[in-house]
């Protein structure tokens, strides 16, 4: 049976973390965990760029292609929920490491699949790992960061995910036309080399404290402090911080009780709408360009690279601005601008692949930034004992959107007009902007314990 940390224990560990200057240790941890997240992003988008070849190989309709894409999304949805529950029970790092190993091995399985059914099974299982890794990794990075400039610290780490998307699109634009999609999935095995580095990272001291493992938390903190002081940094004395919510075992139902009900509803709806738009568009753009506008595969992939590149720029901008503007304004304003651009796409840009690329790239500047910022915001509004569960619930809602979005696109491309598709995405983005802008709480520059006190 897990013991419960006292308020004094929680406050003491938090105070020791808050006094740490940003150091090489922080950067090392951010790079190591970020590399895992990089390959998560790299692997997630491979399916979009391989889809034109896969559809041709197995003679798939657009609706059937949508289900192949959605198989991974369904796995990610389930993985998000399972990963959060495991991370709150057994720790952040075991889940990050296990998820990485799982999605890497499944990528190799996809490369070697001889039938569509086997490919879809491997894609689904890969989704379990992909869905679990990012929310839990974000919890870890958020828990080792301090209140001051936490938004920038966490989001600059998170930017590695869209960079993974970008490099996936660049690699795919060469690999798929020249050597085939199977070799693209073989590269998904690369993250295994990170295993020795990850095994040396300490567990989150905040999580250890929340589980009542005070001696382990003290040992982890001492190890971190010694590494920082060995690099020449001088640690100031700890200053008192609020103890936060009482540490206790949490269940999924706790997300829907008391003060957390509002946070859960706002987060779930915003994740759903944002990922619906983001993945509905990005997972289909190469196929849309080749199937609807009949451009070459190489051109289609290059167009998709541009869209992803603009999205990465948006991620960097939100990382630099979110501590000044605040979470609520950054997320609501970006979603509102994305909605406006999608409505304009529906009105004026559905006549050519080039116009669609330009307007979708403009909207990706804002949609990508919101996708990133939601991870940060969700880690902040839940206490340590249920943080991974809360982030994973948000991630699961996002994955539900990532399933429904591609399915809607596949169905509309078979049955509806292109301008209707972009109008629907605009309306969904606008709904997300309104709900978040009206009901989200502001969390900037507060300690995690202060937010949940």
Automatic annotation (TrEMBL):
GO terms for molecular function: carboxylic acid transmembrane transporter activity. Keywords: Membrane, Transmembrane, Transmembrane helix. It is found in: Cell membrane. Its main location: membrane. Pfam families: Sugar_tr. It is a multi-pass membrane protein. The chain crosses the membrane at residues 64-83, 95-118, 154-175, 181-201, 260-281, 301-322, 329-350, 356-377, 389-413, 419-441. One of its GO terms (cellular component) is plasma membrane. Gene3D superfamilies: MFS general substrate transporter like domains. CDD domains: MFS_SV2_like. This is Putative niacin/nicotinamide transporter NaiP.
């Amino acid at each position: 049976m897990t013991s419960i940390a006292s308020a004094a224990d929680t406050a003491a560990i938090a105070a020791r973390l808050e006094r740490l200057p940003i150091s090489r240790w922080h950067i090392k941890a951010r790079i190591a965990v970020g590399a895992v997240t990089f390959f998560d992003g790299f692997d997630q988008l491979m399916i979009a760029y391989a889809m034109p070849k896969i559809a041709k190989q197995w003679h798939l309709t657009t609706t059937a292609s949508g289900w192949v894409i959605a198989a991974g999304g369904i796995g990610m949805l389930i993985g998000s929920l399972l990963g959060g529950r495991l991370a709150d029970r057994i720790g952040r790092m075991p889940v990050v490491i296990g998820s990485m190993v799982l999605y890497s091995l499944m990528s190799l399985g996809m490369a070697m699949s001889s039938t569509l059914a086997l490919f879809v099974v491997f894609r689904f299982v890969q989704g379990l790992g992909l869905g679990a890794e990012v929310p839990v990794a974000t919890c870890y990075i958020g828990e080792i960061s301090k209140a001051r400039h936490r938004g920038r610290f966490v989001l600059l780490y998170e930017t590695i995910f869209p960079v993974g998307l970008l490099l996936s699109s660049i690699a795919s634009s060469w690999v798929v036309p020249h050597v085939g999609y199977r070799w693209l999935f073989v590269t998904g095995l690369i993250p295994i080399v990170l295993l020795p580095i990850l095994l040396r990272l300490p567990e989150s001291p905040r999580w250890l404290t929340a589980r009542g493992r005070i001696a382990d938390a003290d040992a982890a903190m001492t190890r971190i402090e010694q590494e920082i002081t060995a690099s020449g940094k001088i640690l100031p004395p700890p200053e008192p911080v609020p103890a936060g919510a009482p540490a206790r075992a949490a269940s999924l139902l706790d997300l829907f009780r008391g003060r957390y009900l509002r946070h859960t509803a706002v987060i779930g709806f915003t994740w759903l709408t944002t990922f619906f738009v983001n993945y509905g568009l990005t997972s289909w753009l190469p196929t849309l360009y080749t199937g609807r506008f009949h451009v070459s595969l190489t051109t289609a992939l290059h167009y998709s690279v541009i869209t992803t590149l603009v999205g990465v720029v948006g991620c960097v901008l939100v990382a630099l601005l979110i501590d000044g503007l605040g979470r609520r304004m950054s997320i609501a304003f970006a979603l509102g601008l994305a909605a406006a651009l999608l409505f304009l796409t529906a009105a004026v840009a559905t006549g050519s692949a080039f116009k669609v690329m330009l307007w979708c790239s403009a909207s990706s500047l804002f949609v990508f930034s919101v996708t990133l910022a939601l991870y940060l915001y969700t880690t902040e509004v839940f206490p340590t004992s249920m943080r991974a569960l809360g982030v994973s619930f948000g991630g699961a809602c996002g994955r539900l959107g990532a399933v429904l979005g591609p399915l809607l696109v596949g169905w509309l491309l078979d049955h509806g007009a292109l301008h209707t598709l972009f109008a629907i995405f605009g309306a969904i983005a606008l709904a997300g902007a309104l709900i978040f802008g009206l009901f989200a709480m502001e969390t900037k520059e507060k300690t995690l314990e202060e937010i949940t006190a």
